[in-house]
Write a structure and sequence with these properties.
Layout: H1 12-22, H2 33-39, E1 43-44, H3 50-56, H4 64-72, E2 76-80, E3 86-90, H5 91-112, H6 122-135, H7 140-150, H8 156-166, E4 169-171, E5 186-188, H9 189-193, H10 203-214, H11 219-226, H12 232-238, E6 243-246, E7 252-255, E8 271-273, E9 299-300, E10 303-304, E11 306-310, E12 313-322, E13 326-333, H13 339-356, E14 362-367
Parallel strand pairs: 13-14
Antiparallel strand pairs: 1-3, 2-3, 2-4, 4-5, 6-7, 8-11, 9-10, 11-12, 12-13
Length: 370
């Protein structure tokens, strides 16, 4: 039976260009680091360096110290939030978004470890953990050992996960600072930001912000991005103020009326992305940036590779080998790349290295055969 729809259809390439524009990847953006972190609704930060490379790919004149300074001044911080993974967020989003997504992947992660928490009073665990990490910042090992005193028969990992899920805890500096990173140490957002705990972000506003950074998108796309379910009612409330499209498969897509939707032939320069970049993790259907033939090639087991874009889509991976006085960046295309695209890719690699390597460091760019 043919699909009946009056909504305009957006092809994969049109969706690609719209999302790249929202993601600040069509042209370097003249934004400050804090403004960019807010616009992108956080940066995936499972490892410490990806947020820096994510901003280097997107901002005009970015310096790694820009983000480090924001972390040291406590205007941004690392916290478990979207999809129950660590993100770098502004202080406002670290509290508001974390509270909003609590009922999604974070609570589901806690339930996964509930078997190891038999006999553990979770309210008491939260109170003990809060008192302990607010006295001074604590490592996960410190926190685990303190909780084991109270519940010696519980699973140690489950105790740590429970504290991570129940408390709004940030990873304090120097963890995450550029080239000065230390071990993970935790305290509450209340202590770190010096303010009473804020309210959860409003779901309708979160929908608007998601579309502004990742749209046009479906309900399932946003649920994939944040780890929540049952977001259809929020989209239905907002339907009168949103534009509605469909993709080539017939999936309903929503968008902000004034959001950019460039022509599908808009040039998309090569970009080097870090591992776990949210461009690749924030849609249920990732074909707008990951061609079907390359699906699964950006991962080995649980480890994500650094990737690069050519003409707006994933075209290969890159590696960085840092010695004491020399850095080597290796580009590995998945398929044959044209001479012009390869030259532009090398130029982007050189730009990235100039931004991200210490002054006086020599570097090489190696192009592996496809």
């Amino acid at each position: 039976m043919a699909l009946k729809t009056s909504h305009p259809v957006l092809g994969t390439r049109a969706l690609n260009r719209a999302t790249l524009d929202r993601q600040l990847l069509l042209r370097p953006a003249a934004l400050g680091a804090e403004e960019a972190v807010a616009h992108l609704v956080g940066l995936q930060a499972q490892n410490t360096k990806p947020p820096y490379y994510a901003l280097a790919a997107r901002l005009d004149g970015f310096r790694p110290e820009d983000l480090s300074d924001l972390m040291e001044s406590r205007r941004v911080a690392r916290i478990v939030s979207l999809r129950s993974t660590v993100h770098t967020h502004t202080a406002r989003d670290a509290v508001g978004l974390r509270r909003l997504v609590q009922a999604g992947a974070i609570d589901r992660e806690l339930k996964m470890f509930r078997k190891g928490l038999d006999g553990v009073d979770l309210d008491r665990l939260a109170a003990l953990a809060t008192e302990y990490v607010e006295e001074r910042s604590r490592t996960p090992k410190d926190l685990r050992e303190r909780l084991l005193v109270e519940w010696p028969d519980a699973d140690p990992l489950a105790l740590t996960i429970a504290a991570r899920c129940l408390l709004l805890m940030v990873q304090v500096t120097p963890r995450g600072l550029w080239r000065r990173s230390g071990q993970v140490a935790l305290t509450t957002t209340r202590v770190w930001f010096g303010d009473p705990d804020g309210e959860a972000a409003e779901v309708d506003e979160a929908v608007r912000r998601y579309l502004g950074a990742f749209g046009p998108a479906s309900v399932q796309d946003m649920q994939t991005w944040c780890g929540l379910t049952r977001l259809r009612p929020a989209f239905e409330r907002l339907r009168p103020e949103l534009l509605v499209f469909r993709d080539e498969r017939g999936t309903e897509l929503f968008d902000l009326p004034d959001a950019p939707r460039p022509d599908e032939d808009t040039p998309a320069p090569p970009r080097l992305l870090p591992e776990f970049d949210n461009l690749l993790l924030s849609h249920a259907d990732r074909t707008r940036v990951v061609p079907a033939e390359h699906k699964g090639r950006t991962w080995t087991g649980n480890q994500a590779h650094r990737t690069f874009l050519v003409d707006g889509v994933i075209a290969g991976i890159w590696r960085l080998d840092e010695a004491k006085d020399r850095t080597t960046l290796t580009i590995e295309p998945f398929t044959r790349v044209t001479r012009a695209a390869r030259a532009a890719l090398v130029a982007e690699a050189e730009r990235t290295l100039r931004l991200m390597t210490p002054p006086g460091t020599s570097y090489d760019i190696v192009q592996a055969e496809s």
